[in-house]
Specification:
The chain is α/β, with parallel strands linked by helices. About 30% of the residues lie in helices and about 25% in strands. The protein has helices at about 20-30, 50-60, 85-90, 95-105, 125-130, 165-175, 190-200, 230-245, 260-265, 305-315, 335-340, 370-380, 400-410; strands at about 5, 15, 40, 65, 70-75, 80-85, 105-110, 135-140, 145, 155, 180-185, 205, 210-215, 225, 250, 270-275, 280-285, 290-295, 320-325, 345-350, 350-355, 365, 385-390, 410-415. Strands 22-23-1-24 form a 4-stranded mixed beta sheet. It has a 4-stranded mixed beta sheet with strand order 2-15-17-16, with helices on one face. It has a 4-stranded mixed beta sheet with strand order 4-5-3-14, covered by helices on one side. The termini are close together.
């Protein structure tokens, strides 16, 4: 397994380009099956999760080319409706294919998905919504068997604003004559990106960014050439890294309007954040501030995908910081690793309370999931001495060339 070796204490300075959003690319790749014409998707990051989704598409018989962050897909070659467990186990987002495969084939056999072990992420919301749309579903032997021959438009009310369930309903609804609505839908920017992609193919979806979506389905969808939105989590990670290390970084191709929850939490640190067009400039002195109480919530609340990174700020912040993880019950696996580096923190259930320390010390630590691993890298950037982060394959699920970008900004980091 690969690892990062980080010699801490160097501020981040310079500029980087923000990658396309992982959490947009995956459902958009799935949505490419909604047409039988050529699909071109630009700004696609080279990530383990993207590679795994493309492997699944290939297993379904779909031809594609991936070069220079551009994926060209030929959906007309789709020849299977089964997603085996070996592929689904590697990628939580394989569940997104349920809606699009049903839309094309009117049937699907999908293994229960995997991905990072950050707690229970049941698919019952997906199944309940699809049943309300007339899909017959049988579960057994680790698979979900679906028959959509009698699918029909419906008015769906989600018990929780699940991003995945919202996206699956959107995908299937495009193939159903009539109007399907989703109340209590997820409001994440990635939902809007999927809406824009479907509409660029000739679909008719409205309401993204609000808790009520409307899909008018049944129209044949056409070829599309689409550019994926920037990754707000990657941008947030580098913003936190810049504030931690006390540098100045220009994030090119970022969306400041997607990061208001983060900006509101770091405003008590000695940093300045400016944005214009698609760029964000972060300037920080390294002088520490307070964080107070931070609770992860669905968008537009503070994102759970930045919880591990903000924990590092909490570890060295002035005074006490309370982090409340409301979305996933086992997403604190990075905290014992931070304690190895000198963080003073107590965890009870979903609450972590940090008492800020003057410095962290380099140590050998292990990444157990994608975002927790990224947080440990940020901790290594400010730690005294050398930090060794193992299992970086988790980090590579969501960050393209993470170590290369950090080196470009002046970090002393190598991959072995």
């Amino acid at each position: 397994m690969s690892k990062y070796l980080i010699n801490g204490g160097k501020p981040l300075n310079g500029e980087i380009n923000i990658q396309g959003a992982k959490n947009s690319v995956l459902p958009i790749l799935s949505a490419s099956l909604l047409t039988q014409q050529k699909v071109v998707i630009r700004n696609v990051p080279r990530l383990r999760d993207v590679d795994n989704m493309l492997k699944i598409l290939k297993n379904l018989g779909v031809d594609y080319q991936f070069e220079d962050n551009v994926v060209v897909i030929t959906p007309s070659t789709l020849s299977s409706y089964e997603i085996p467990s070996g592929l689904a186990r590697e990628l939580r987002s394989s569940i997104f294919l349920l809606g699009s495969v049903l839309a094309r084939e009117k049937r699907a056999k999908v293994a229960y998905p995997g991905g990072c072990d950050i707690g229970l992420r049941p698919i019952d919301l997906h199944i309940k919504a699809l049943k309300e749309m007339g899909v017959k579903i049988v579960e057994g032997g680790g698979y979900v068997y679906c028959d959509a021959e009698n699918m029909e438009p419906s008015s769906i009310t989600l018990d929780y604003p699940s991003v995945g369930a919202t996206e699956n309903v959107m995908l299937l609804a495009t193939a159903i004559d009539g109007v399907t609505t989703i109340a209590n839908s997820a409001e994440e920017p990635e939902i809007e990106d999927l809406q824009n992609f479907i509409n660029a193919m000739g679909g008719e979806v409205s309401g993204a960014g609000t808790p009520f979506l409307k899909i008018k389905g049944g129209k044949p969808l056409k070829s599309v050439d689409y550019t994926v939105m920037p990754d707000r989590i990657e941008a947030g990670t580098f913003i936190i890294g810049t504030v931690l290390t006390g540098g100045e970084v220009l994030l090119k191709g970022a969306r400041a309007d997607h990061l208001n929850a983060l900006f509101s939490k770091i405003q008590k640190w000695d940093c300045k954040i400016e944005w214009s067009g698609g760029n964000i400039l972060v300037s920080a002195s390294g002088k520490r501030g307070e964080l107070g109480i931070i609770e992860t919530k669905p968008y537009p609340g503070f994102p759970t995908d930045l919880q591990a990174e903000i924990c590092v700020l909490g570890a060295v912040a002035n005074g006490s910081t309370m982090i409340v993880e409301n979305l996933f019950e086992t997403r604190y696996k990075h905290i014992p690793e931070l304690q190895k580096m000198g963080a003073q923190v107590k965890v009870k259930d979903r609450i972590a309370v940090f008492n800020g320390v003057k410095e962290l010390t380099g140590a050998e630590v292990n990444a157990f999931d994608l975002r927790g691993g990224a947080g440990l890298v940020l901790a290594g950037l400010i730690a005294r001495g050398v930090t060794e982060v193992n299992n970086v394959h988790f980090i590579e699920r969501g960050y393209e060339d993470f170590d290369i970008k950090l080196r470009k900004l002046g970090a002393d980091i190598i991959k072995k």
